[in-house]
Specification:
five-stranded parallel β-sheet; elongated; alpha/beta; single chain; three-stranded antiparallel β-sheet; 9 helices
Length: about 260
């Protein structure tokens, strides 16, 4: 009986992944990523895995101690399929700020992974079934001179990527030349995303950036304004044909509802 399967252990292991090249964005230069691997052991040797994946607030690896010290006692010994009750207690135990939700998410992943393994089903079946056979992935282009960014994009296209993300910050002299160059070199089939990482100070500034990109059929302009400026984001969305995307602005369901409103 699946209801009898108990969680026997929960641990979190920090690990470090070097990037192939330093990535420069409005958030700074990044040469590696620090993550955390949550391992959730249940009966019969089954183990569910979840990842603490975050590049803000000191990286995800620093949340491993919170998983070991605060979350594991909330979980060990409980039925694996007490999903909602476990997550409610985990969220209650870890309310230090939005960044702590990355650890909650990793525990949720590990729970679902273990459930799927016990049932012999892919996790997508536990979430209602697949609605797409594939998703489009993009690679981020580090801020640099336009020719270097275009060369980096060419290498990704040759590897098989069908979309790239152009990073930009306060200094945007490269932005339009790179986007225009990508469209000219690769035609209409290449997906182009732009990520401003909250670097615009006002809604009018963000609108100017979006307007300058309208001729190039970009997929989205990501988080042009700080998360708190929802009115500014609405101002931009209403006045440009470029889709405006939120990222740093949505950490949980309440944030998503606020954005939708």
């Amino acid at each position: 009986m699946t209801t009898d399967v108990l969680i026997r252990s929960v641990t979190a292991v920090p690990y470090r992944v070097p990037l192939r090249a330093t990535l420069t964005s409005a958030l700074g230069a990044q040469s590696h990523s620090n993550y955390g691997l949550v391992r959730l052991g249940v009966d019969d040797g089954v183990e569910g895995l979840g990842e603490i994946s975050m590049i803000w607030h000191g990286d995800g690896a620093r949340l491993c101690a919170e998983v070991d010290d605060l979350l594991a006692p909330q979980i060990v010994g409980r039925p694996l399929f007490a999903y909602e009750a476990i997550l409610a207690d985990v969220r209650s135990a870890l309310r230090f700020g939005r960044h702590s939700l990355a650890a909650v998410a990793a525990v949720e992943m590990a729970l679902l992974d273990a459930q799927g393994k016990v049932l012999g089903r892919p996790v997508v079946d536990l979430l209602g079934g697949s609605c797409a056979s594939s998703i489009r992935l993009s690679m981020s282009l580090s801020i640099a001179a336009p020719d270097r960014m275009l060369a980096e994009a060419q290498a990704y296209v040759e590897e098989g990527f069908t979309a790239v993300k152009v990073k930009s910050g306060r200094d945007r002299g490269h932005l339009v030349p790179v986007v225009a160059g990508l469209r000219a070199e690769h035609g209409p089939d290449l997906g182009i995303r732009v990520d401003l990482n909250m670097s615009c100070r006002t809604a009018k500034e963000a609108l100017r950036v979006c307007t300058s990109l309208e001729p190039y059929d970009v997929l989205s302009v990501e988080q042009p304004l700080p998360p708190s400026d929802l009115a500014g984001s609405a101002f931009v969305r209403e006045r440009t044909s470029v889709p405006v995307m939120v990222d740093e602005g949505v950490w949980h369901a309440e944030d998503a509802l606020a954005v939708l409103r």
